[in-house]
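chain below, 452 aa
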Amino acid sequence: MRASTSTLEKWDNRTYNVNLRHTFNDKGAELTFDADYSTFDNPANQNSNNFFFNNENTEVATPNLLRSNSFSGVTIKAAKVDLTQPLKGGINLEAGLKTSIVETDNAVEWRRNRGNDFVVDSNLTNQFLYQENIYAAYVNANKQFKGFSVQAGLRAEQTVSDGMSVTLDKQVKRDYLSLFPSISVSHQMGENHGFSYSYSRRVDRPSYQDLNPFTFFLDQYTFGRGNPFLRPQFTNAFSMNYSFKQSFVVTASYSKTDDAMTDLLEQNDQDRTTYQTRANFAQFDNWSLNVSTPVKFTEWWTARVNASGYINHFQSKIASGEVDKQQLSYNAYMSHSFTLSKSLRAELSGWYNSPSVYGIFEPEAQYAVDAGLFQSLWNGKGNLKLNMSDIFFTNSFRVKVQQDNVNARIAGNWESRRVNLSFTYKFGNAEMKPERQRRTATEDEKNRVKNN
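prediction:
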């Protein structure tokens, strides 16, 4: 079989923001308000062509030709108010409220070739509507003691969602309250040794496209499909950190994720089709140890080294059987900086990721080397940068899957070796006050919009 798939799509994103800030006094008391309105429109057309040949390169069956017109629209409305209030005793209090309303409308019409015409395939055509309202409140306090810093907070979120497959007349409703506590403690021992300890609970929600049950083809035997029953994942994370002279840093951490969202391959042995979707695994445990330090070889040659070792352990029952995968993995990164003159600098960096496991997928090792030159011009007002990524063209991926009735090998390459030349010049007053940094009301929700 020979298959080809082409997709033509357009993305249109617009965001409107209103921000107000009021400062009560010179002690840091402040009230801020943000209101956002964002829209994402994604019309697309896809052609999937499948041709069948024998070993003599003779066509032996009627081609299977598919065409689709689809539209995905996301509307996000959100508002938040945040208060910062210093209290007596050196306590700094932060509190806030936020509400977000998200509506998505996804429609796709698939047509299959029948003679000289393309006829609508009702088994693939669908419309999916989704609405999600989140109401949140938080309070956070921090205080400096003698040699200690303590922070504690609590966030509450009420989530109400409704997903409706109009064509299939299937509805998924959810209404739940979640609490997210956090606490961290840090302290110094002498001038050189620093320690910190933290715990937090967080939520990661599915992208809006992952909830969309539509089918997207690679070929007639391989396709992707969303999952309207996908649930958010909740993670409890613990971390301990040690630093020496604020440069050599060691971090040990553990996290436990319930309902972990991960990719899953499902195979139908009867029609020999395989599709990829997102699913919830019962539990994902991660242990990790990270070491980071600078290295100074000479006055003109410095480096930064980062190395990590970690264990991923996935456990869950799935439709085709049971998953219980665990592996010790590691990765390393090193960057070198060479000062060639007062205005010329060179960099050389490389990274390596060992084989690992993620859900049912077992990625093989990956590595790459990058290099660059940086020339400062006109007393720093101008900068000329030349860099090359993945010099040896090694950044490809190889993944194997061997789970119950699925035995697959997946390989892919992309244009990872690139040469970039850029020039920047600073105009105007270099002493001008920079724009204050802040998070808009729809920032979290916009991060859940992605391409199909």
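The longest strand covers residues 59-86. DSSP finds one helix and 24 strands in the chain.
thats it, cya
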